[in-house]
Fold each of these.
Amino acid sequence: IAVMAVCCLTANAQKMRHPAGKATIQPMIGLSYGTLRGEYKTTSGTIKYDNDDPRYGLAIGAEGEYYFDNGWFSLSAGVLYMQQGCEIKSVTTKLDFINIPVLANFYVAKGFALKTGLQPGFLVSAKEKGVDYKDACNTFNLSLPIGLSYEFKNGITLDLRGAASMTNLIKDSDNMKWYADGGMLTIGYKFELK
């Protein structure tokens, strides 16, 4: 039993590339995508809408991560600029956000993490056909992100995430709800802090 316990503890301790109690900072850049899903309430019922094409753009920012002593868990928080929105019949809806992901990271294998948490976001721009309609939108957005990442031995990290919005994009509307979903594929580099 003692040998098995030592083996389990050793295996768990090897699931992270960074020692317990340490922190890293990770600049990251990559591709963002966004879609809109929504629904309209009419006199005949509710019509759901989610058949738009994604808008692709830039994701750039940085995240900090703190590693705990159990060998498989860390917490991270960051600030990311992401271009989201959608394309409907060749018309591009441009929604740009500053997102602040706060994530729990579960290291299921060395360097490989599954992620989930909450992502508050702030709308900085909303345009369609050159027309600014930010005043018609709620500037705060709360999303539920889920994703995975892999950190190579040299510190380079690939990260893939999707986030489902829980906040109505349209301000003061009872019969129309739009949700700005998004995600990203980024590459970053983890610097361990002293």
Note: The longest helix spans residues 2-13.
Amino acid sequence: AYNINPSDDLKNKIIYLYNGVRDGYGLLWSNNIYNDDVVWGALMCIRAFKITNDGGMLDMAKNNFNMMWNRAWDTQSLGGGLWWTTANETKNTCVNAPAVICAMLLYQATGDPVYKSRAKQLMDWIVLKLYDASTGEVKGAINKAGNITEGALSYTQGTFIGACDLLRGDYPSVNYRAMGLKAMDYAHNSMCDQSG
């Protein structure tokens, strides 16, 4: 809402919500077993930082993203990707695609090329393991054995599209724009009620 119609009221609400998360859950969320929760929280922090320029918000985003990356990124099973939980059973789009978005926003905020590199690593893995280039479907999860355990969901399609959008300017030769459009077409054609 703030990005569409900036106001002091909305900015204050963002600060209030950020403070509530910080005060309720602390500065580092390593006790949360769900890596997607950590990424969503880091996304909240980096987006709030872009609006408020509060360095504490940026630090919380970086520290939680880095903690999550260190415990979840794994190349031994399935050649890469982030585990959904600390149980390391499945690698899900719901953590990997938002992590691409978060890494790119961290790169934009800090200029640290490590974040841009991690975003590209993640996206390459998602495209290889969970994206169906012929249909645009983004599968929801894959287990250790390499079996898809979850199909497309609206928010996994959406975060994949958002990840493509953030990467397309930095990697034009990969044509993330076309992948994002294909994923959008899949969501529209296969996941929407078009009877009305």
Note: The chain has seven helices and three strands.
Amino acid sequence: MKSLENKNIIVTGGGRGIGEATCKLLANEGANVVITCRTEEEGNSVEKNILNSGGSAKFIAHDVTSEESWKNTIGITLETFKRLDSVVNKAGSFISESITDCRLEDFQDVIRTSLNGSFLGLKYGTQAIRNHGEGGSIVMMSSILAK
């Protein structure tokens, strides 16, 4: 028996890296995985890979910094799978250059993606999970770059 059979899970930043690996693992455990990221090519590729492996997946283009995009993602998830059981907030951003070379706009983009995006995932994910009254989970992830 797969431990996540018929659980519906949104994974932000699911198009590559840790997010992609998370999507594949969750699908392998029986979850219906909603892959979200800004890059359609990456999201579609992960969706296709999971579907070709016999898993259940749906890609939704998603900007985690936008409330409207969160509402849309939650709405499509509920329309497709009827309920939401979990959100994995994995989307993040980082700056590779030194602080002296970093522009304020670049830093603000990191804050919008990593903090605001996580806040919105908590807010809208919690609302959707509470709708079915059976509990669920919100998982917050980051990479070593968060340090």
Note: Residues 15 and 65 are 16 Å apart (CA to CA).
